């Protein structure tokens, strides 16, 4: 589906979304920190996978992603989010 299939208004919304994808990704990653503190079981695994995907979108080095996800360290993830927010 090409952009010509959308109205001019919809095209503007889509364009702004992709221009701000970094902000969207770190915002969602910061929300995941809180959810990870509270989650358990299968939901916890799904949230960690989602966090890893958002870290990739934010171009966090793969070694750091692996370290955080393997340790399941929510505090390290929170520190990463704080670092990313300070760069904005």
Stretches where pLDDT is under 50 for at least 5 consecutive residues are: none
The tally of domains stands at 1
Gyration radius (Cα, Å) is 15 Å
The counted number of beta strands is: 0
| DSSP helix fraction | over 70%
Q: Strand share of the residues?
A: under 5%
* Overall pLDDT: 89
C-alpha end-to-end distance: 32 Å
Indicate the structural class.
Answer: mainly alpha
**SS summary, helix count:** 5
Major sheet attributes: none
3D shape = elongated
N-to-C series of helices and strands: HHHHH
Describe the structure.
This protein has one domain (about 20-85). About 80% of the residues lie in helices and about 0% in strands. The chain has helices at about 10-20, 20-40, 40-55, 60-70, 75-85. The radius of gyration is 15 Å and the shape is elongated.
Name a few traits of the molecule.
80% helix, 5 helices, 88 residues, mainly alpha
Write the layout of secondary structure elements.
Elements: H1 8-19, H2 21-38, H3 42-57, H4 62-71, H5 74-87
Helix pairs in contact: 2-3, 2-5, 3-4
In short:
By secondary structure, the chain is an all-alpha fold.
